[in-house]
Amino acid sequence: MVWWKVGEVSKANATAQAQAQAQPTSANKRGGSQVSSSEDARRAEQDRRDRRLVKRIRDGDEGAFQELVSTYQNRIYGLCYRFLGDREEAEDVAQDVFLTVFRAIGSYRGEGRFFTWLYRIASNNCKNRIKYLKGRHHGRRLEIEKSAQAQMPSREGGATHSLQSQVPGPEAVVTGNRLQRAIQEEIANLDPDHRLLIVLRDIQGLSYQDIMKVTGLQAGTLKSRLHRARVALKKRMEKHMR
Amino acid sequence: MVDPSDSQAAELMSAALDEALDANDAAAFEAMMQADEDAQAEFAGLRDMLKLVKELPEVEAPPDFYENVARKIRRRKLLSGEFWLLVSLPFQVLSVLVVLAIAVIYMMVQLDRDPAAKLERERAPVVDSDHP
User: Around Cβ A50, how many Cβ atoms within 10 Å?
Assistant: First the structure.
């Protein structure tokens, strides 16, 4: 296969993508320390798979890089989108994250989980983008999904699966979508450090341990800062929940 | 309401919302809840809000995401020194060959113009051993 031959997503990649899509949903619903043994086994398998992929990428296997991108693209794009609140910026930053991974994979020492290394790069890129946009006096182009768009395939065909669609009745759907827009807007108004913790813990469902590795915070600091972030978000959300 | 500066209470509240309390912390949390009605209200409010946050729709990357990453990598490679080195290599070789060719032509021309060298060549006799 030629390096960077586009448009060829192998069967293995499609499977990997499906697995990656399934991960956040299951992770979201679990508490930090209540990790079942099946969850442990899944994490261990994911780590083994990541290590194999990293080794293959270092050996110059372009298919492995494609597989890695397919595995993590939704999670990284989701993180960037929830952090920045803008699809175009999120896509650009998420692409930069994988570009950084491609260039820096040689310096990855294999200590800790690859997944947390990737998330650290993503969160740093998001923070840097916010600083850059602020520096350019960039008017906040917060893209709030319109009610209809939330139920339809997004710009390039990528879908957003609304949980509100499971609630019967059009009124419930409208209310749900309004709240979703409000939440996204208010998350984007939080302090970047608070925003990151809310996205990592409450939206992406990372465990405390993983968040500590991504952010470099101690357990106590993480919990109290997370509480402050949640209180700040709740305060902002009160006007929408009345 | 839990004082945000009270880090222990904040930690307990976070852990409780994430269902991550161990036995000791669970007891401390229960005691805190029983002693403070504001804390109870805050906990309930946070739990409701988190339920909404967790119900945010999952977002998928665009289908051409990998193609765009690959394109970006190619573009960066084009801009990097590695690419320009490869492009310029044939020109470097060509320029060396041109310089060498010019030097050879110059030397031949100079040799033709030099009268001493001409004389040397004309004077050189053909030695015939049978007819001295």
Answer: 19
Tokens 């032509």 correspond to B105
DSSP B2-57: --TT-HHHHHHHHHHHTT---HHHHHHHHHHHHH-HHHHHHHHHHHHHHHHHHTSP
On whether both B42 and B79 belong to a single domain, the answer is no
Is residue B2 one of the residues assigned to a domain? Answer: no
**Residue among B48, B58, B71 whose CB faces A25 most closely:** B58
Average pLDDT over residues A74-95: 95
Token pair 């768009």 in the structure block, residue: A149
Q: Is residue B123 part of a domain?
A: no
Overall size of chain B counted in residues? 132
The predicted model scores a pTM of 0.70
| B38 lies in some domain | yes
Q: How many separate domains does chain B show?
A: 2
* Residue B125 in contact with partner chain A when CB distance is under 8 A: no
Q: Are residues B80 and B44 in the same domain?
A: no
Bridge pairing between strands A160-161 and B58-59: antiparallel
Nearest C-alpha of chain B: how many angstroms from A169? 17
Residue B7 touches partner A, C-beta closer than 8 Å:
yes
Residue B79 CA to residue B68 CA, distance in Å, equals: 17
Domain that holds residue B111: 65-116
- pLDDT (tens digit, 9 = 90+) per residue, B70-91? 999 888 877 666 667 777 888 9
**pLDDT (average), residues A180-208:** 92
Of residues A35 and A29, more confidence is placed in A35
A-interface mutation test, from B52, B54, B67, B79, most A Cβ less than 10 A away: B52
Q: Is residue B127 situated within a structural domain?
A: no
CB distance from B98 to chain A under 8 Å? no
Do both B51 and B81 map to the same domain?
Answer: no
CB A71 within 8 A of CB A45: no
CA dist B12 and B32 (Å) reads 9
CB contact under 8 A, A234 and B49: yes
Cα distances (angstroms) measured from residue A88 to each of A85, A92, A93, B105: 9, 6, 9, 61
